[in-house]
């Protein structure tokens, strides 16, 4: 279905296609040649989108894009922060992220209007903005596009690493329960390596789209079952921390950023809308979706932590009881024993298996963006036109999968990976860069109090972004080293 292919998210168990990124990149190239002449140029009126998405479709894509491995890691984030700090912190971080996305979208509109271009992607916005800014930043303009692309690439590959660890950990949990063994999670990674390489050899995303739809359905069912497990017993605050240790807060920050930030897809989604002016605004698509997402995240984090306490793991699925027959069905069917024997499947294992499959499909979609950036923007340009281009493309695809696989084998720790990549990439992409873009875009167009506010508000965001990046990355790496030395 066409409406399934308009998302470009990276952080999802719920992913549709990343094809839009390629389409948009191609359109962007074509559009550069067309420069409108009239002074009252409105980018929204000059966009030619083949399959424009409605407001509700865009909302659905944003929600779908933000409900993946990130939300399953939220209870673990609350373990690091405590349930009161966690609830307030998630809302504050959610507010800041939303504000930064608004700034990025407004800057894109303003720059498109000035340059008379219908739309731009993230690296192009950054490059154009710095070119409009003070002299000091203008010298950096030619390089900022590559910097943004590098962060996007590290984030995409980091997400793929998280997926490898997630799939392997859940397979291990199933195998351990069935065989009463304790196999090494790295062995599970080796088992899934060939399937991972093969799914990333699919060059046309059209063939992955039906699987993606299936993965979305599976994720919905799994979330329902997870909620059943969380709310099965009465939730209590006894023995749970209201306020965590300050030194663990950077891990919370990284995890929440990883889970919340849909920054890579915001511009592609907004560029594909039928009514892009409805994306911002106080009751626009972005605000409605972010309020819903933050609400779901606080709910999952709070109740997941209050249920499992300090025993909560990197993904809440790993906390589900192993040796348990299908309680739900038993409750419904009372004692019809033949049916009971037929249905003595294990519910929690079904969830692990289903989510492992859904995230496996998603690996192909998330890696697609990394392959797209690496191959189209860099490798293919270097190689130039040649007969073996297809061979080299498959080589690049395989190398990227192997990179994510080797990183995952080296550090098979889900929660540390998530907070590392959240702090490293999303502090920059989600907080610091949008603030920098905002300063440069309006540098010569504001004065007096409004300029003072422009500088103050955005410098605060840049400082928060840099502190988050440095402290969050340092804390995650320190914890990874500690895990290693054990």
Notable traits:
486 residues; mainly alpha; 19 helices; globular; disordered N terminus
Mean of residue pLDDT? 80
As a percent range, the share of strand residues is: under 5%
What is the count of DSSP helices, taking H or I runs of 4+ residues?
19
**Global outline:** globular
What is the ordering of alpha helices and beta strands?
Answer: HHHHHHHHHHHHHHHHHHH
How far apart are the termini? 49 Å
The helix fraction, in percent, is over 70%
Q: From the helix content, strand content and strand pairing, which structural class follows?
A: mainly alpha
Largest sheet: none
Stretches where pLDDT is under 50 for at least 5 consecutive residues are 1-37, 325-330, 340-345
Cα radius of gyration in angstroms: 23 Å
Q: Write down the oligomeric state.
A: single chain
- Report the strand count: 0
Structural write-up:
The protein has 486 residues and is mainly alpha-helical. Helices cover 71% and strands 0% of the residues. The chain contains 19 helices and no strands. It has helices at residues 19-31, 55-66, 69-72, 74-81, 83-115, 122-132, 135-138, 141-179, 185-199, 209-232, 249-260, 263-271, 285-308, 327-333, 337-342, 347-383, 389-410, 414-442, 449-485. Helix 11 crosses helix 19 (449-485). Mean pLDDT is 80; it is low at 1-37, 325-330 and 340-345.
């Amino acid at each position: 279905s066409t409406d399934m292919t308009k998302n470009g998210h990276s952080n999802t168990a719920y992913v549709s296609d990343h094809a839009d990124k390629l389409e948009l990149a191609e359109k962007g190239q074509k559009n550069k040649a067309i420069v409108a002449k009239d002074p009252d140029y409105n980018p929204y009126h000059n966009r030619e989108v083949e399959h424009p998405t409605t407001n509700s479709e865009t909302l659905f894509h944003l929600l779908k894009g933000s409900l993946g491995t990130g939300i399953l890691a939220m209870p673990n984030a609350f373990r690091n922060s405590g349930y009161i700090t966690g609830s307030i912190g998630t809302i504050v971080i959610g507010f800041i992220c939303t504000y930064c996305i608004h700034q990025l979208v407004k800057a894109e509109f303003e720059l498109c209007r000035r340059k008379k271009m219908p739309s731009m992607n993230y690296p192009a916005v950054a490059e154009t903005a710095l070119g409009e800014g003070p002299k000091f930043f203008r010298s950096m303009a030619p390089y900022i596009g590559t910097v943004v692309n590098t962060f996007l690439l590290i984030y995409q590959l980091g997400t793929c690493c998280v997926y490898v660890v997630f799939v392997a950990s859940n397979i291990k949990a199933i195998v351990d329960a069935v065989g009463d063994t304790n196999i090494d999670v790295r062995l599970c990674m080796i088992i899934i390596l060939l399937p991972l390489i093969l799914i990333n050899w699919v060059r046309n995303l059209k063939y992955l789209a039906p699987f993606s739809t299936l993965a979305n359905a599976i994720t919905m069912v799994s979330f329902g079952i997870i909620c059943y497990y969380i709310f099965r017993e009465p939730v209590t605050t006894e023995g749970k921390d209201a306020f965590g240790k300050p030194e663990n807060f950077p891990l919370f920050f990284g995890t929440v950023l990883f889970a919340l930030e849909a920054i890579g897809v915001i511009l592609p989604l907004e560029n594909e809308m039928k009514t892009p002016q409805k994306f911002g605004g106080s009751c626009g698509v972005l605000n409605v979706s972010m309020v819903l997402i933050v609400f779901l995240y606080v709910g999952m984090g709070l109740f997941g932590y209050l249920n499992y306490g300090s025993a909560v793991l990197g993904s809440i699925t790993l906390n589900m009881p192993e040796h348990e027959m299908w309680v739900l069905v038993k409750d419904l069917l009372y004692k019809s024993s033949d049916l009971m024997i037929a249905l003595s499947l294990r519910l929690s294992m079904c969830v692990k298996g289903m989510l492992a499959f859904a995230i496996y499909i998603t690996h192909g979609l998330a890696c697609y963006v990394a392959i797209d950036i690496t191959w189209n923007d860099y490798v293919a340009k270097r190689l130039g036109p040649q007969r073996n281009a297809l061979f080299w493309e498959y080589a690049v695809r395989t190398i990227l999968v192997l990179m994510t696989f080797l990183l995952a084998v080296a550090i098979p720790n889900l929660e540390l990976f998530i907070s590392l990549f959240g702090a490293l990439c999303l502090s920059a992409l989600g907080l610091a860069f949008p603030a920098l873009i905002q300063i440069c875009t309006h540098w010569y167009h504001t004065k007096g109090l409004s300029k003072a506010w422009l500088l103050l508000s955005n410098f605060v965001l840049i400082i928060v972004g840099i502190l988050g990046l440095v402290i969050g990355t340092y804390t995650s790496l320190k914890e990874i080293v500690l895990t290693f030395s054990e």
